[in-house]
Design goal:
383 residues, rod-shaped, single chain, 10 strands, 10 helices, 3-stranded antiparallel β-sheet
Amino acid sequence: MNKSRLLLRGLENGSGVIRSDAHLRPCGGFCLQLRRQRSDGRLPTNTVLKFVPQQEAWIVERMGRFNRTLEPGLNILIPIIDRIRYVQNLKEIVIDIPSQQAITKDNVTLTLDGVLYVQVEDPYKASYGVDDPEYAVTQLAQTSTRSELGKLQLDQVFEERQLLNKSIVQAINEAARQAWGIRCLRYEIRDIHMPERVKEAMQLMVEAERRKRADITESEGVRISRINVAEGAKQSTILTSEADMTEQINRAKGEAQAILNVAQATAQSIKLVSEALNSKQGKDAASLTIAEKYVEAFGKLAKESNTVLLPSNTGDVSAMVASALAIYKNVGSRKPFESSEEELPQESTAEAESKKDDEVSNNDGPRVPKPKKKYKNPSWSED
């Protein structure tokens, strides 16, 4: 027993050779990882002059108490008194998180594992703050995963996977960064395994959701199609009515312009005819034209109908022409809007006089209508 104690003391005082893994445990898993990289399994010994590699930090103890941290480059140590106790790797380290079971908020058991990326920020805290940093960070990652997973439902686990990773990283940093000098850079959930019944239920849910979306999409397409057809019919009706209105307006304008042109032409022709009639030989020409038209019209009788009314002197052409000329002269001799008193009916004068005498005044009473007089037409014959 005394020999073994002396051997251990000799190792602690600077002999530099570590014979068992128990002496590596104070530096944690990070020192173990570094030990795997060294073929001889030795920690650096105190040779007065030491060259520290880049991205490594060596913890030096002087007479069993922390003295300083050796930076990369050349460092000078005091033999026998100074001892290199821990070697910390400052690179980013990948730690596999073992598979574990966790229960979601809706009581579904999931099996998941992940990958953790950490880095040593403070070599002193990583050496003296925790016995085994790798084991401590791994356990902290598992407990944080179970805690954060219990706050989410099953559907949210897949939808908010990135948010879940960030929450786990934040929980690890709150516990390990200040106390252990270890910063968690990121955490990724690698695989998530569910029970078979849950998978079947989720598959049925997915199929139902897909059918629902397909039905909604189809109904939306039908609705949009009907709306488009109705809008097309509406626009077609509006355009057709506008076209009809424009056509009627144009036709009315054309007819009005045609009537106006005909009226202007008729007025011009009448003006020319009146100017011709006022000339010296105009009346003779008009008489000749009337006679020709009369004879032409008489020649067309009995061509369109079987019933014909003929004058008594049909065979006397000169008499017929003379009667036509007489009609022309009679019409031409009258002034416009001229009327004779002889053409008025005799009853008009009598009725006017009767209206004046309809009412007579009575001094003792109201006015009473005067009885109407009976007029006798001299042309009537008494029976």
